[in-house]
């Protein structure tokens, strides 16, 4: 009996030893789970990704709002109905002229006032036959607010209804010269060339049957305030 118990104890001991051995294979020593002390190079900081910033558009609402001045009321310009390139805006100067010079491009129908630092204020213009008939250098001899318009005799001959204005049409919102006029002279002689406002906003950027250089009334008022008499001018 004692020998049987001893045999069982021996077999049980072998079984426990085997289980312990298997367990020892399945469970690694604690120190083997530790990560080796490896130096990882720092990741350089990346600059934040930002979308390109587009330049702010001019405030056309303020530029082309209704204006009341000297008892005259100019309506707002419906600028949303105008090709944006003909709206007043600062651009890179394409002329190469000195700051303070007015340059009229009769092909693209732009008027540039050259600014400093390679910039220019660009305005859209409309051109009549007179606007295409003269090119070269001149000066703004003088300028007028709310000018009187006197139609030439040739225009009266074509349209006899203008006879009543032979001595001049009073200033006003319907006057063909609009709110401002700049009178162009060359060599002390009037070229009969004018830069002026127009009640017909839809004519800007287009060719017209008559007239010189038309601008939005609000734009010619802006130009008038920026340039003095004797301002140099180039028409190309």
Largest sheet: 10 strands, mixed
Euclidean distance between termini CA atoms: 130 Å
The residue fraction in helices comes out at 10-25%
Low-confidence stretches: 1-36
Count of discrete alpha- or pi-helical segments spanning 4 or more residues: 5
CATH architecture: Beta Barrel
Radius of gyration: 42 Å
Secondary-structure content class: alpha+beta
CATH C-level class is Mainly Beta
Give the name of the CATH superfamily. L,D-transpeptidase catalytic domain-like
Overall form: globular
List the helices and strands in order.
HHEEEEEEEHEHEEEHE
Content of β-strand: 25-35%
Count of individual domains: 1
- Fold-level CATH name: L,D-transpeptidase catalytic domain-like
Average pLDDT, rounded to a whole number, is: 83
Write out the strand line-up for the largest beta sheet, numbering strands in chain order. 3-6-5-4-12-8-9-10-11-7
Number of strands: 12
What does this structure look like?
This protein has one domain (60-235): L,D-transpeptidase catalytic domain-like. It has 5 helices and 12 strands. The chain has helices at 2-26, 60-63, 129-132, 153-158, 217-226, and strands spanning 67-69, 72-74, 89-92, 102-105, 110-114, 119-124, 126-127, 136-145, 180-186, 189-198, 213-216, 231-235. The protein is globular, with a radius of gyration of 42 Å. The relative contact order is 0.17. Mean pLDDT is 83; it is low at 1-36. With 236 residues, it is α+β, with helices and mostly antiparallel strands.
